[in-house]
Amino acid sequence: MSLTHAWVVVVALSCAAPMFAEAACPPAAELPTVPAVFSAAERAAGYAEGDLKAAQKLNSEGFRARKAKKGAKALELYRQAVAASPGYAVARSNLACELVLAGKRDEALAELTTLFRLDTPEARDKVRAAQRDEDLRSVWEDPALCAMVADLDRRAPSEPAGGATTTASAATRADLVATLAIKPTGEGEELGIEASGFPAVSRDRRWVALFVVDADSARGNPNGSVQVVDAKTGKIATQKVILSPDEADEISPALRKTVAERIEKSRALIAGYDWVTLDAFAEPGDHEDAFVGPLTLGDDATGVRVTFKEPRLVVTIAGEAVHEKTHKRWSAPTQRSEDGTCENPATLLGGFIDPTRRVLLIHLGYRGNDTCWEPTDQMRVVRLP
Q1: DSSP state letters, 115-182
Q2: Which domain holds residue 259?
Q3: Is residue 17 assigned to a domain?
């Protein structure tokens, strides 16, 4: 079975970080009927991309206003961003957050409903995330939002971390060689990075290759870096930034040339190794607090289970503990905010594994709020004995 992950996306979500608790929605039988999604013609007529570049700039300005606690200014900037690009899901999601913070609950639900009706992959993700976002807590249990999220889950459950939907058995993994590829996308004022084959482990189990995308919080600028991690120590051995979020504020021919040159250097970095694709864990199911586990690898034949309760990680295979260790450096450092000292507890969001080479990749997320912003998600490598 062939398996290719598009990329490892390491993100900081827009608005506040997701809370790791489930909304207490009404029973399914009591939920309202969801609205019809827009047809292709309706999306083209009323929700086209428009001036996306202008919208991204306005969205970034709104993000900075929110961080400066200038709610009214942020709200106006997000409205302008949505007007410039009605189909831009990031700005519409941020607008919904800002509307809730301004006490405009019904307007926020209207924006979330529009996201649901847009029915693009990004819009669907934003609707799901709304029910976990601390800034949107007041609408978590609204029947309309509950119905939309339930409908999305019935139609197409969320993909495992990294975008993979299937896993390969241990018996086939030895011959599953990954082809790692990176290329620029977009024309004119649009520039992105597309990567495939990541994450992967070298056949000698010494190195793990990652393509890391930071969602750049509410700005959502395109970006990407290639990392090669020492599987034994878990430390980054080499990192090549291909495009940074700040650079993506202004796309120019010179930047496009620079990105092409960086891609060539990144290709040279990963060349010369035989890479094997890592399998994805299933995403976490229902849980009540910020400490999630255990998770089970999609291929039950491996019998791998991972439990993380900060800062302790426990890995078992076929019921036998093979890794029990406290990882204090995985915890986020204490921050200081205007309201005093704040902390960002970590939780297990998912991960990847090569059962044959016994290399594990753990995806950690961090809780935050409007005054104590969450750190970027982290991917941590563990080589099992």
Answers
A1: HHHH--HHHHHHHHHHTTBGGGGGGTT-HHHHHHHHHHHHHSPPPPTTS------HHHHTT-EE--EE
A2: 170-277
A3: no
